[in-house]
Amino acid sequence: MKKSVKILLIGLGVVVAGGAVYGLTRPKTTYETEKITRGTVISEVSVTGSIAPSSKISLQPEVSGKITKIAVKEGAEVKEGDLLIQLDTRDASARVASQQAAVASARARLRELQAGATAADMLVSQTAVEAARQQYTAAVAAEADAETALTNARRSYENVKARTTTQDEGKVSALQDDYDSASTTASDAVNRLTSPMFDLNDLLLFSSSDSQSQSDATSTRREAKTALTALSAAAASARAVGGATGMTNNYDAVVNALTAVKRHADACAKVLQYAPSLPAATLSTYQINASTAQSSLNAMLTKVNADKSALDLQERLNATDITAAEIAVSNAESAVTSAAHAVDSATAAVNQAEASYNLKKTGSRPEEIDAQRAQVASAEATLASLQADLAKRSIRAPLTAIVTDLPFNPGETVQPGQVAVTLNAKDRFEITANISEVDIARVKVNDPVNITLDAFSVNEIWTGKVISIQPAEKVVEGVIFYETKIVFDKDDERLRSGMTANLDISTAQRDNVLRVPVRAIKDAVGKKTVQVLVNGQPVTKDIQVGLENNDYVELLSGLAEGDEVVVATNKK
């Protein structure tokens, strides 16, 4: 055997032997677990205080409100729990009642999930599915009808527009003809009928015994000739612009020009009344011509005005008809939109009814029951918070005392931080503690307190409760605190002023809830996780938590009772 091969075999033997030794000696990982159980979770704030004799107690409401009742008088002795001042509870009571209904609904839903569907439930759900499908069919038919109605409304709108356009064109054509005729009639009156009465300089060929009539005949002739030009231009402009707009824009110019020519015909007729020098035959001819001009101009003015009124009336009628047709189209479009929404709603209703029916057929999954149980716990927590808020509207005596001051009257509004009633305690010790701003939001008046004293064994425990929290902060070495007072539930002759007291203030409590050990919980980004063993290996699970203390955390969802979670990892 070659030397290099021998070296290789020896090397492999060393590796194999080393692996075997490592396999026998490498650390073995074991996991310590605890089960998810039900029990009580109490959240506590732990602080240190000192005993002092009780004296004046200033009670301040934790919420603002109008005083509806003052139950005591100054100088009266009150016992612990006696009502002193009642604030308005209407809104708070309504919120509590509403949340009680929400809790009842959540509990009923939980019972329904736990019990599963009955035959009657299945029949109701099946009937609901059939009804939802019928409503969907009706909604689809209604949508089709609405679309047909919209098509008809749009067709009617186009017909109305076409009809009104035709009617408009007839009135416009008549008025345009009037403008053209007016130009011809006015020109005939000036250039043919009255022209023989004047020379080339537009002066009368005869004298009149009425100088004013003579002057009017001459001046109105010049105005009439100017009006002929304006009238011709107005008629041409109306035709160029066309439509009702062209007729309307030039109407005043046409009427004014015709009126100017009419004034000239009137002036000619009048001046002939004062022309004794004219031969009878000539005078008769002039009078006939002037009268003919007057009649034709009057008739032309009447026709122009009548046809303009007819056009205006037609325009108003057309506008009314078009507006009505537009409204009909708009209403039909709205009906189509509403029908489409109804179809969408009916589709959602069918899907929901079918999902509910299928859910009842398959039964509730464990995670659904857990989720609903969490909903119940959340609703109960909200109710407890609202009930606590309602209780804050009743200011009660924290201990036996004498009422010394009632600064407010019924009907007045009191704010947090304002002293609503002052008491003098009767020979009781109290504890003063400074609670940091981090914890003070969790503490409230009447919270129960467990008390141990440095002067006695840690196994000897007194009980008490919070009676007041100062609203103004106290800064100690740059840290913000709030002075809080606690009283003992029972007198004890062994108590001495100045003793150091260790306080565990119970700020919230949940009974009969799922609990997970604090040491099993890990913080991830924006969530809480635990590890459970699957085939002997840890698997991470997301959970939702509620109340917590040093030992346990309330479990809202993610695991079930009896599940085991990893609390420690050991390597041997």
Describe the protein.
The protein has a 6-stranded antiparallel beta barrel. Strands 3-10-8-5 form a 4-stranded antiparallel β-sheet, with no helix packed on it. The chain has a 4-stranded antiparallel β-sheet with strand order 7-6-4-9, with no helix packed on it. The chain has a domain of 193 residues. The two termini are 44 Å apart. It is an alpha+beta fold and 572 residues long. The radius of gyration is 52 Å and the shape is elongated. It has 8 helices and 21 strands. Helix 2 runs antiparallel to helix 7. Strand 17 and strand 18 form a beta hairpin. The protein is 52% helix and 26% strand.
Task: List the topology elements.
Blueprint: H1 3-25, E1 29-35, E2 37-53, E3 56-59, E4 65-70, E5 77-78, E6 83-87, H2 90-115, H3 119-193, H4 211-241, H5 243-271, H6 280-362, H7 366-391, E7 394-396, E8 401-405, E9 413-414, E10 421-425, E11 429-436, H8 437-440, E12 448-453, E13 462-469, E14 474-476, E15 479-488, E16 500-517, E17 522-524, E18 527-534, E19 537-548, E20 552-557, E21 564-571
Helix pairs in contact: 2-7, 3-4, 3-5, 3-6, 4-5, 5-6
Give a quick summary of the entry.
With 572 residues, this protein is α+β, with helices and mostly antiparallel strands. It is 52% helix and 26% strand.
Regions with little confidence, pLDDT below 50 for 5+ residues? 2-10
How many strands appear in the DSSP assignment? 21
Main sheet characteristics:
6 strands, antiparallel, barrel
β-sheet strand percentage:
25-35%
Mean pLDDT: 88
Q: What is the H/E string?
A: HEEEEEEHHHHHHEEEEEHEEEEEEEEEE
Query: Taking strands numbered 1, 2, ... along the chain, how are they ordered across the largest sheet?
Result: 2-11-15-13-12-16
Structural shape: elongated
Q: Specify the number of helices.
A: 8
Helicity level: 40-55%
Distance between the first and last residues' Cα:
44 Å
Question: What is the CA-based Rg, rounded?
Answer: 52 Å
**In terms of structural class, how would the helical and strand content be classed?**
alpha+beta
